[in-house]
Amino acid sequence: MTRHLRVAVVGAGPAGVYASDILTKAALPDTFDSVSVDILDSDPTPFGLIRYGVAPDHPRIKEIIKALYRVMGNEDIRFFGNVDYGTDLKLDHLKRFYDAVIFATGARRDRQLDIPGIDLRGSFGGADFVSWYDGHPDAPRDWDFAPHAESVAVIGVGNVGLDVARMLAKTADELLVTDIPDNVHRCLKANATQDVHIFARRGPAQVKFTPMELRELSHSDTIDVIVHPEGFELDEGSMDAIRASKSQKLVVDVLQNYLAKEPTGADHRIHIHFCQNPVEVLGEDGQVVGLRTEITELDGTGNVRGTGEFVDWPVQAVYRTIGYYSDNLSGLPFDQVHGVVPNDGGRVIEIDGSPLPGTYVTGWIKRGPVGLIGHTKSDAAETIRLLMEDLDDLVPPEHPEPDAFVRHLDSQGIEYTTWAGWEKLNEHELQLGLSHAHERERVKVVPREDMVRVARS
Q1: Backbone torsion region of residue 6, taken as left when φ is above 0, otherwise alpha when ψ lies between -120 and 50, otherwise beta
Q2: What is the mean pLDDT of residues 134-161?
Q3: Which 3 state secondary structure label does DSSP give 441?
Q4: Between the CA of residue 62 and those of 124, 178, 296, 427, what are the distances in Å?
């Protein structure tokens, strides 16, 4: 006798959508005749960090949404938004309706930076800033751009650091061609930033930028990109990194081009500093007034050592972009050091090393916030392969019929959104763009209650 396989995927970003796609296409053993997937997300909308983590002036990256759309159109996949795991549902609830649960909740919080002064006013997490300018419903509606903050520091040399620097340096009106919400445009008009300083602890061959992101820094006529020669060093370890990676070589080439280029006198400048390790945020009356860095030097391996020499930089705000950190999920073990759910290839494992039956992870909650979106596919494939190996050992749910889960949400009074609801909201945002004074492509709806109202109308 065969049965239907029911799987819940918690998280509607690329990791969750790819896992769902691979699962619905997988060859099932003779004990199962079909499979269906329900994707749950705390946001009222799908797509996770593609909607709420990619800078609005990166439309090419957002092209991936088209591929995700095709997956979500599969009749074997349902979407339930505005459903918060840990509050509305816990693992025991889900296992009443599903054979297995895959967590693909990603990482949205800022990794902490433990240096003196990091909690001063004017010291911000880059992830919080990204959530704000992308219009996440749980982010504040305003941002505290101090009127005197003309010089700003960005700590961290990954793509998020470049996004933050670019958004701080661009004029508000340049961004009207994007989907930034009206409240973001209004606040950016009050941004007084003229100089953004990006600090790298190591040298140019160790930065985590991608070549495309780095080139895009100079695509605005209002911005000069200035690479400072101090610390621009390449040791033997750096040369090894360049020889081993075409992408890293391209990054160094772009940085060298910036280094040789004369500033044009643009109104805003993005400065990139190498071999400067931030050690303290300086304050006065509880407010950021500077950043202290220790000058470092490459040690021949691509790593650095401190020199004992320090520099104080007069900045009025500091943004840390040293990485994302995942949330601790209710009912699952959690590795506090690495910010992941302990797992063996995607199977969640308990503290004693035994697998947690029918429970899996994929994406950043599985392996940490590293790699590009494309890496998520192979990651999801590994997790689904393990799930398929475990199928005969899965405990059948009490209520396997698809309508049972919907009845449960209704009985709990949860105002969930669906894929059809997202299509309504999507069309609503496109129409807001058409009717906007600047005829924009889209205007995002920000308040959660408004998003839910439109989606459920």
Answers
A1: beta
A2: 93
A3: coil
A4: 25, 11, 37, 17
Place of tokens 């004990």: 31
Backbone angles phi and psi of 399, in degrees to 5: -125, 80
Strand extents, DSSP E, 148-267: 151-155, 195-199, 223-227
Inter-residue contact 248 to 241 (CB < 8 Å): yes
Q: What is the rounded distance in angstroms from the CA atom of residue 18 to the CA atom of residue 139?
A: 27
Pairing state of beta strands 268-273 and 195-199?
parallel
C-alpha span between 65 and 202 (Å, rounded): 35
Q: How many Å apart are CA 12 and CA 3, to the nearest integer?
A: 26
- Cβ contacts of residue 47 below 8 Å, gap of 6+? 12, 13, 14, 17, 65, 68
- Contact indicator for 9, 102 with CB cutoff of 8 Å: yes
pLDDT tens digits, residue range 317-347?
999 999 999 999 999 999 999 999 999 999 9
CB atoms within 10 A of CB 437: 6
Question: Strand, coil or helix: what is 21?
Answer: helix
Query: Whole-angstrom Cα distance, residue 5 to residue 32?
Result: 6
List of residues 6+ apart from 450 with CB closer than 8 A: none
Give me the phi and psi of 224, to 5 degrees please: -100, 135
Domains observed in the chain: 3-108+326-416 (3.40.50.720), 111-324 (3.50.50.60)
